[in-house]
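Ticket opened by: R.M.
Priority: normal
Category: complex prediction / small molecule

The reporter submitted a protein together with zinc ion and asked that the result be attached to this ticket for the collaborator who will pick it up next week. Submitted input follows.
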Amino acid sequence: MSKITFGDNPLDHSSKLRGDIKWQKNALQSDKSKFMIFYEDRPLIKTDPANRDNPKIYWLSYQDVKYLLDQKVITIFLGLIGENIYYAIDLNEQNNESEKLESSLSNAKFIDLRSIAPMINNKSAAVIAQAKSIFEWNKSAIYCTKCKGVELEVLESGYKKKCNQCEKEYFPRVDPVVIMLPFHKNKCLLGRQNIFPPNMYSALAGFLEPGETIESAVIREVKEEVNLNTENVIYKFSQPWPFPSQLMIGCLAEVDSFEHEADEDEIEDSIWLDKEDLTAIFVGKHQKRIWIPPPMAIAHQLILEWMHKN
Ligand SMILES: [Zn+2]
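Result attached by the on-call engineer:
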């Protein structure tokens, strides 16, 4: 089991079945199929009035969603768990349908993923993240970028598109981001950007650039943001981040000095902290009232990881 939010997807993606039109037609109508519904990037969630901390994905059957499939919705195949077949449907701006579903089903509500992720179990959060990223790609990649105005054909159950004029193929994109915690001896370095809420500090981060390895991106970002030389890049774990579709690559960056200088355009303030400081932060008792991102953020997990190694 992964401690990383969105990192514990239980589905067998069964990518070979995506393009099997006959299999998909039967599977869609089978009594083993289950459908998650999305509206404006929000999944339909079954809330429990008796226990607010126990929300679930509101899975519907083929009979429940049959009428929706005849409308202008986007349907994607998510994968399998044993004999069960999982799909997701995006209502694609059909406002009436979203209201009807919320009012006709008991305790059903479309809830945005940032709000629901900390409360829902980690496997469900990962499945929602998968669907959300694929839907956002489907809704943004509509036309061929070479042939003006030519609409792309949807293939592979929503995982591929193709221009039938120039044959160009399109696939869902993932944008890699390196996120790293610099450390030296018994201290680690946290920084804050001016867009952060007051007193929040976090690990450093930046997009991986074309031509870079993960290691060279970490070394470059640490140099650019706090002017420190990284001697050792230690990869720890990664996290799909479905806003809309990044991959956060979490690393520790061992640097050669405490003498740093933050780039004021990127980092408003930075601070070296030892394990005692971090312990105080985790219990909300740091003297400067510093706090860090919540557990669903990979930065939080990186800080914990470093603390446990020291
Ligand atoms: Zn084209």
